[in-house]
Write a structure and sequence with these properties.
The chain is mostly helical. Helix content is about 80%, strand content about 0%. It has six helices and no strands. The protein is rod-shaped and about 115 Å long. The protein starts with a helix and ends with a helix.
């Protein structure tokens, strides 16, 4: 035998063993990394889940507080004019929304968009009804107009957001 065949018979098996060892080590390392990532996700869920639940609770409170029935009940004063009530309702809706802005990182984009649409829809409702009332008349006219239009909507934005929020919480748990 010549030196080249002896060299090949020694090198080829050694290369095969090295290649096999490298493939096995890569798979072991990948499995170890996957297992470690699963454990980290599991540990994170123990901390994230309560925070997400609180976010859903706060958003439900936002929806309920900005529901026109509750909004008017909680903010209307007998001596308010239509203009005063309009400004008050706009400010409360915006403040409630701004106060809960950070909750969007814990919920789906679809839910957050629905809640944003609810805010805009409520502001539009207040402004639309305010256009129909002389600004110096008693705020009762504005309050009645808002409630009447809101109650006549087939599917109001508050109910849409509430249902979407409930659905998301059920899917989460």
């Amino acid at each position: 035998m010549n030196n080249f065949t002896i060299f090949l018979t020694a090198i080829v098996p050694a290369l095969l063993v090295l290649l096999t060892a490298w493939i096995v080590l890569q798979k072991l390392l990948k499995n170890f990394e996957n297992e470690r990532n699963k454990e980290l996700r599991k540990a994170n869920l123990q901390y994230i889940t309560p925070v997400r639940l609180r976010a859903y609770e706060r958003l439900m409170l936002l929806i309920e507080r900005t529901n026109p029935k509750n909004l008017i009940l909680n903010n209307f004063k007998e001596d308010m004019t239509c203009f005063d009530l309009q400004i008050t309702l706009q400010n409360v809706i915006r403040q409630e929304f701004a106060h809960n802005l950070s909750q969007q990182i814990y919920v789906s984009s679809a839910l957050w968009e629905s809640i944003s649409d609810t805010k805009e829809s409520l502001l539009n409702l207040v402004n639309l009804c305010a256009l129909k009332c002389p600004s110096d008349t008693n705020g009762v006219a504005l309050a009645e107009g808002i409630i009447m239009i809101y109650n006549n909507e087939v599917q109001n934005p508050t109910d849409v957001s509430t249902e979407l929020l409930k659905k998301e919480v059920i899917e989460l748990f």
